[in-house]
Amino acid sequence: MFQYRLEKHHDELRWLYMELYQNDDMFAELCSKMYEYYRQRSSKLKERDAKREQEAGWYHRKDMLGMMLYIDNFAGNMQGVKEKIPYLKECNVNCLHLMPFLDTPEGRSDGGYAVADFRKVRPDLGTMKDLAELAEKCHEEDINVCMDFVMNHTSEDHEWAKRARDGEGEYMSRYFFYDNNDVPEKYEETVSQVFPTTAPGNFTYLPDNGHYVMTTFYPYQWDLNYRNPRVFNEMMYNFLYLTNQGIDIVRIDAVPYIWKELGTTCRNLKQVHTIVRMMRMIAEIVCPSVLLLGEVVMEPEKVVPYFGTVEKPECHMLYNVTTMATTWNSIAARDIRLLKKQMDILNHLPKQYVFLNYLRCHDDIGWGLDYETLKQWGMEEIPHKRYLNDYFTGKIAGSISRGELYNDDPVTQDARFCGTTASMCGIEKAGFEQNKEAMETAVREDLMLHAYMLTQSGIPMLYSGDELGQVNDYSYKEDPAKCADSRYIHRGKLQWELAENKNDPTTVQGSIFQTLDRLEKIRRQEITFDKDADVYTYDVHDDSVLCILREYKGRRFFGIFNFSDQEKTAWMQEDGVYRNLLTSEKMELKDIRLRGYDFLWCEK
């Protein structure tokens, strides 16, 4: 079987490898090691591989639903997560994204993205054996397991980095080391900064070593040099080791940054696509049930190329980043025109392209919007960014959102935003004020946005706690290791006492949990949510109301969403009798009145 798969991909894999590295010996070593990892793969995982090779599009199913969570915040450790699988089943989750859990230095972990050892679990979370057992238990319950694979950099505490700091040439060549500032200064001329306020520049000087090292993200995260074939090979061995623990989906962190070239932006270079394509083929040879999820936080025209082509695919799935940011812009501006325009672009892409849709994740929300288009509607970039941040931090009269800024840059007046979905929708504010009417409105906004997310094509991804309407956690300010990073405001521990209310619809938690459960089951049952459905936006002649039409096998579904806090009318004159999917009531689809932040799902 290995030989069959290798022969299928060998010529292209070798051609791409030699194009980058011109090294026959290293390619031969790669193939030999791939066979080793294939042999080490368990019989259960090989059975999973064979089954999924027969149903290659299994992840396109309309019942796919993901949840991302931090292991310690959710259940303490991996054993705790295993015990909470029945709760995940209640949430209808069949794709579990475990946020970074590999060993990282305390206080210099960047939320787990500064990996000190790719083959060791953080001791307080468990062991590799615990990971394999958790994955096996998830598989028994038809839950896929996703993990982050940080390819761009290692922690400065990684063995390679320690040996490089000690001056070992072989290990220095695995990073970008320079004995003076000449080359780093040339890089700085063309490479933008990721964290201009908290970690300015792209290089860090090491006094004990007398060299500069490239650090695109934080000074303790050293960029790997993929121009060195040893780096590529070793990282692929780490990748295969982790997939052999039972990982189904590998989220490739910071994909566009992987390849560096002087005189360029060091973003989205063609060699990145070569590396991802090779990674896809390596997976298809050794572990074909494993999917690649690309984290590409870019505008649509730069994101889509990471799918590759039909003949030469790269990532199986990508994050729908632009739609997420534009969704919150639509809430603050009460204007869905940009969102509608972007959804029209996505809806015309090939149906085999799978996006992960989400309202928020572990990271901040950046306002990388299409300002050329917004400018046509009177929204200038700097004032509009300031308005968005003022709105979501609750500084504007009438705003119900609460949260904090991240990387506020006084020079560019740019900043990103942090907060849970519930707090952004007003649940925190209404709860603090004990305002019942405001709480009803906030819960309605929260549910409207989740319903809208579930209406999109692709895989919806919840963030743990959002299924219960959990609000911001300000306790991070009391932790010296976290207080400087406002992203921890929306990474709080799951409040299990709130989960006790999940079956009581008179509570905030029960209202959200029960309605989400109903929506998720409808999505699973109705054929208009099939991956092959045609999807369009539908003009209802109000810039605050988004309408999505899904058509499949003669059935028509409409999702209508009011992004305004005011009552609105969706102006439409559709023939025939429709069924409200939440209430089962029969209705005509003519000039539909919606309360502020309300929505309607109906089908004919």
Automatic annotation (TrEMBL):
The keyword Hydrolase applies. GO terms for molecular function: hydrolase activity. SUPFAM superfamilies: (Trans)glycosidases, Glycosyl hydrolase domain. Pfam families: Alpha-amylase. It comes from the Bacteria. Residues 68-495 form the Glycosyl hydrolase family 13 catalytic domain. Keywords: Hydrolase. PANTHER family: ALPHA AMYLASE CATALYTIC REGION, ALPHA-AMYLASE FAMILY MEMBER. This is Alpha-amylase family glycosyl hydrolase. It comes from Dorea amylophila. The lineage of its organism: Bacteria, Bacillati, Bacillota, Clostridia, Lachnospirales.
